[in-house]
Design goal:
Low-confidence stretches: none
Number of domains: 1
Structural class: mainly beta
CATH class: Mainly Beta
Number of strands: 17
Mean pLDDT: 97
Distance between the termini: 12 Å
Order of helices and strands: EEHEEEEEEEEEEEEEEE
Strand content: over 45%
CATH superfamily: Ureidoglycolate hydrolase
Number of helices: 1
CATH architecture: Sandwich
Helix content: under 10%
Largest sheet: 5 strands, mixed
Length: about 160
């Protein structure tokens, strides 16, 4: 079985797959009479011509490292954003597209205060908290047409 090591999540390493949302660097603007720093427009959201943005709440049961991954999914018609709603460890798995199927996977460990937004069509693992409560706000495409492709791997891999 293939084993990959999870790496720290950085904007540079994650750029081929999406955006890392975090409040780093100087704020774009200070608002609310100086009481709030605004880090403006940090993710490219794409819901296609017939979709709209929707915000859902997901509560996922925790997994543990080493984690065996046997399926990746993607959303060909719209981006998807995972925003943790609690301070907990979680895992992000992504893979490039290679001729319509996932290529070599990568895994990331977000730090407190980080969220991710997957670009439209990015292969990724399921929501994978590593601790309770596993609570996330998810922003994704709402439409009547389908927006989910699942790919079950011939050979699962393990993330450590």
């Amino acid at each position: 079985m293939i084993e990959i090591r999870a790496e720290l999540l950085t904007a540079e390493a994650f750029a081929p797959f999406g955006d890392v949302l975090e409040a780093t660097g100087a704020p774009d603007k200070v608002i609310n009479d100086g009481w709030c720093d605004r880090f403006h427009d940090r993710a490219t959201l794409d819901f296609g011509p017939d979709g709209r943005a929707g915000v859902s709440i997901f509560r996922a049961r925790p997994r543990h490292l080493p984690y065996e991954c046997g399926m990746l999914e993607r959303h060909p018609e719209g981006s998807q954003t995972f925003l943790p709603m609690a301070d907990m460890a979680w895992l992000v798995i992504v893979a490039p597209d290679v001729a319509g199927v996932p290529g070599s996977p990568r895994a990331f460990l977000p730090q407190p205060g980080q969220a991710v937004s997957f670009h439209k069509g990015t292969w990724h693992g399921v929501l994978t908290p590593l601790a309770e409560p596993g609570l996330f706000a998810v922003i994704d495409r709402i439409a009547d047409s389908p927006n989910l492709e699942e790919h079950f791997l011939k050979q699962p891999f393990v993330v450590s």
